Amino acid sequence: MHEFDIINKYFSNLSKRNPSSLNLNDDVFFDKAQKLVISVDTYIQGKHFLNFNQPDLVIKKILRSSISDLICKGVYPKYYFISASGNKKHFTKLNLTKISKSLKEEQKKYKIFLSGGDTVNSNQLTFSITSVGNANSIVFRNKAKLYDDIYVTGNLGDSYIGLKILQRKFTVSKKQSNYFINKYYKPDLQYTLISKLNKIANTSIDISDGLFSDIEKLINNQKLSYEIEIDKIPISKNLMDIINSRRLKKEGLISNGDDYQILFTAKKSKYRIIQSLSKKLRIKITKIGEITKNWKHPGIIAKKGRKIRINKKGYFHHF
Fold first, then answer.
1. What is the pLDDT of residues 178-229, one digit of tens each?
2. Which CATH number fits domain 8-134: 3.30.1330.10, 3.40.1550.10, 2.60.200.20, 3.90.1150.200?
3. Disulfide check for 286: which of 23, 31, 234, 279 has CB 3.0–4.6 Å away?
């Protein structure tokens, strides 16, 4: 059963009298009266991270992916809570020292503070992070307007290559390997865009499960669709070099998740403002498509206007 089927069938009714829950169809809880924004994420070894050989990098990855939920809503993360299950093999003195050092670095980088948590002894290694921020308003899901432009920040696909390298399913030079693995463990969050997002975006989401999967979540309660041009989807020079040298298809590499870039829509009249912001903040912000009305038939467009089908749109949570 798909995660949204579970939510709709078993839990939606429990939240109907709580408008701050946003119908359980957004990445956050938002209590406007209290100016309170909360996000909760859980990470399991073997599912969300391969192993715990580099605990200092794993903790960076899961913390950044958690606060990304607030950042894509135009909210500054302020506090975080960590709950962890594991055993003495996972939480050795050396590993705990590495984790503590990494968290200190992340706190300084993103101006956040550890505020509590819980620990449980278990053979299964898991982490659950609750991120908290304060805001007068947020950028919601399902607020796209017909003919909005679709934008994405940064580059897509690097993290996926990093994962494949770690899984030993992809071989590249040492320099390239270091680059892609670094992108997998330490995604580039667009922190400096937070205060501007509310002024430019109609709706937004972070790209965690994959570009096409997440854009469909972004508009899942609206009878709208989208057209995205493959050639306009931004990728790094390193990824372009691999695509060209190995004759790979770009569409197979840019929607596999773990990018944590911001996917948002905006009115066409915002184009120049967005381009100006991109230059001023030194953030890559790329227009990749448009919101359309033919909701049953999204368009993924390749070269010369040819429509293509994407077999894997991203990661879906099934139970």
1. 999 999 999 999 999 999 999 999 999 999 999 999 999 999 999 899 999 9
2. 3.30.1330.10
3. 234
